[in-house]
Amino acid sequence: MQPSAEMMKRAAADAWQGLRVDAPTELAELEDRWLLPYRGMQVIQVRVSHQLTLLLDSGAHVDIEAEAVLGHGPLSAPDATMARLVPECQEVAPALALFRATVLSSVAFKSGALWLSFDTGAHLNVKSDHQYEAWSAHGPGTLLLVCLPGGDLTVWR
To answer: How far apart are CA 39 and CA 26, in angstroms?
Structure first.
């Protein structure tokens, strides 16, 4: 199951709540998702190979191997722009705009979808893949989340 429009709106609301000083800075589990501890971290490098990697200033990184969508602007606005990213074909040029962007919110839905929002107005959505590990998030420290084939999430702390 992929996140519904309502789930995405709640994640967007979490992004704004994430600006509060008392927002969690560590991995936090909710009923339908995990709040990842990347709030306030800056993308310091964008790497391209068979995957797209966003390296964050804390040493943490997010690897994306499945197709993704990079949007800019409010999710429901008619003038929002969307770009399809295909890492295995190196079709990820729009993702270069994430260099120096700061993460406002990072959510891993228990359905396997990953959603990141940035201070630039960009938001990245990666859905699970039936055959492959769609994405993984590494760090800070020993934290590792992997979206397994079919959408199950595995979390190591």
So the answer is: 9
Q: What's residue 11's pLDDT?
A: 56
Beta-strand relationship, 28-29 and 33-35: antiparallel
What is the rounded distance in angstroms from the CA atom of residue 155 to the CA atom of residue 80?
Answer: 33
pTM for the model: 0.83
Residue 145: pLDDT above 80? yes
Mean pLDDT in residue range 43-64? 97
Which amino acid makes up residue 52? L
Q: How many CA atoms lie within 13 A of 99 on its CB side?
A: 9
Instruction: Establish whether the linkage from the previous residue to 74 is cis, with ω within 30° of 0.
Output: no
Specify whether the backbone of 47 is left (phi greater than 0), alpha (psi in -120 to 50) or beta: beta
Mean of all residue pLDDT scores within the chain: 88
